[in-house]
Every structure is written in structure tokens, then in C-alpha cells.
Task: structure prediction
Amino acid sequence: MSTGKVLSQNDIEQFMELGWVKVPQAFERKAALKAQNYLWEQLEKRGIEKLDRTTWTEPMLRLNENYDTEEFRTCDSERLSDAIEDLVGTGRWVGRGIPNRWGWWPVNFSEGSHLEWDVPTNGWHWDGIHFKHHVDGPDQGLLCLCIFSDIGPRGGGTLVAEGSHKVIARYLAEQQNGVTLEDGIQDVNKAHQWFGMLTGQEGTNSSSSKDTNRIDYFMNQTVKVDEANLRVLETTAEAGDVYRCHPFLYHVSSQNHSGIPRFMCNRTTPLRERLNLRRTNETNYSPLEFSIRKAL
Result:
């Protein structure tokens, strides 16, 4: 696998193996913080003041809005676009060179701060609630976690299940007519004990599932499931960083014990056409296509 414009060969191989790669300063920190200030202005319209913590009454506030203002256009950098195309293929992403809207915004002020930090059971998913899922579907492209604040350990960073994209790829390849996100998640959680334990599903066979130290089991060791090496990773970042994730990667929001509001949005990068998993020339496969072929 060759080097891309932004991503190294090791970066691309990590994406295929683990399902994610971090792009430091995909857009400038200065631009990210200006965009964050714009978001604070939107929060102030709801009575939430940046300098008055007594107004931070909701642990998680969702700004279900998309924005296309000058602040966000500045974040639409060439480095960001190049890193996307390093993974999906040059010219195969519909969003290059056109205005892109940024949203939605789960602003994590202090989610779960009253509880001991742990690996959650609720909320694990891969993305795409508004379309039917196929292994070669063009709807998602990549999962892009765009960061607009500094996120330290236990600061509300997204948790990702490394390697889970391989299990999902194999599952989706068996769904000839496609599957809804809800049904797909339920099927995978029932089919594999690791996913069942991760999501707290009743009926997991392990007698120790309730007694498992979840941080140790899921984050400090790797478990092989269906030829995939699975482990939960907590993402940390600086404003301007972006995580490029496989569209089939399991992920979930986490508790924020830092006292610092976390600002991020989750962007899709829809493709011009369906993925082609049977190209006549192997060099024409994108890393995204090649990762799915490897999983299958």
C-alpha cells in the first residue's frame, strides 16, 4: 500500500488493521478555536455562558444543527480533504471543493462525571441510521471525528472498538438485501460474546460478565473474535485534530471527568458511487476497499 498525500504507509496500514487513524492538525488549531467560539455563541442563545459554570446544567447538550459559516469554511482545509481521499480514493468523495456543512454537536460538559469512569455498555454503534447498510454502500464513506477542543484522558473522547470493522464487514457481506442499522447492531451483539459483553446484553454465556473489570478486559487486552483483534481505545486530541475511522467501526461517547467541555462533530464523507470490491486492476483499490477485501 503506497503513501498518500497526508497519510504515511504505516498510517494507511493502521487504518486497515485497527479501523482508525489520527490526523494531527487536519485543520489549524486557531481555526478550530474560532469555530468553538461560534458554538459558544449558539449556546449562549440557550442561556449557557462560557464563563459561568452555574449555567452548565446539562451534562450533555446536543446542538442538532449543521453550520456553514466562515469559521467552519476555514476548517475545510486541503490537508483535511487530502487525508480523506488518501483513504477513499482520489476523486471518489463527493464533498471535495464544495461547501460542507458541519454538525451535529454533542457538547459534552460533564457526562457521567458523578460516576466512576468505566467502559460503557449503552450506545455502542457504527454510524448510519438514515440508510440501509450494504458492504459496498457509498452513503457513509468514512466516519470523521472532527475535534474543536483539547481532549485529555477521561475528558469525553470517543471510545472506539479497534478491529470491529472487520467483524461488521463480514456480517454485512452476508446481508444480500442490506440491513437497517438497528437490526445489524442487534445481530452482531447476539452473534459474538465479546460484543454481547461490551454492550451488556442479557444472555451472554460468560458467568463472569457481570464481574468483569471492564477497563482491564476491554482496554488493557486484545481479544480475537472472528479473526479480528478487538480492543477498546479512548481517543484523545488537540483542537484541529481529526480521527479518520472506518465506516463500520463500533464507537460510543464516554464520560467526561475533566471539567472541560468537549466540542466535536461527526462528519460523513459520502462517495460518488458504490465501493468496488472486484476491480480488474488491484492498484485501483482504495485503502477503504482494500480493508474490506482483507476482512472478507
